[in-house]
Amino acid sequence: MNREGLSPQVVEASRSCVSLSTNPTLSVPLASYPGRVACSQMAFWNKLFGGGDPQRVDYYNEGLELLADENFHEALTSFRLALKESAGDGVILQQIAICYTRIGMMEEAAKTYRHVLHRDASAAGAHYGLAFILLNGGDTEGAIQHFEFFLACAPEDPEASGHVAHARATLARLLGEPHDSLPEAPPPDELF
Fold first, then answer.
1. Please, which residues have CB within 8 angstroms of residue 60's CB and are 6 or more apart in sequence?
2. Which CATH number does the domain housing residue 151 bear?
């Protein structure tokens, strides 16, 4: 651990992570983010109670907590480290796409969602995320297609109901069908 309390892997990965941005204003050193202390505390508790290898950090859950705290660059770093441990994992890739979306890297987010869909065409979360990216980018036809795919394979659990209702209402609006007013959009960083 360094003096900020972060593991060397997180520090090194975050340097390469934020340097990938094409926007120089997004290239901010990890140490300048206020969430760095929370990150080290999570790693400490994971090491303390995680069992197994005391050096192993649960990067996926660390990324989820950082994402919830709106520390998007750090969350992206943690998800990338989790992806190294579980290469090609569609759920981790979707979380990475969410991070890209939240920091304004829409092309990277769309590319990541497409990668997930190439591996698993029934990944509902990837259809949902890509549909909104396409819609905001002006590709209405592409958005409609992905909303339809999402609704065809949408999860039926209560956590996803807000996403499903929002997708239905948005699709109805795009198709010119009558519908009630759009429901409030669910938080964009939730995956079902």
1. 78, 79, 82, 86, 92, 95
2. 1.25.40.10
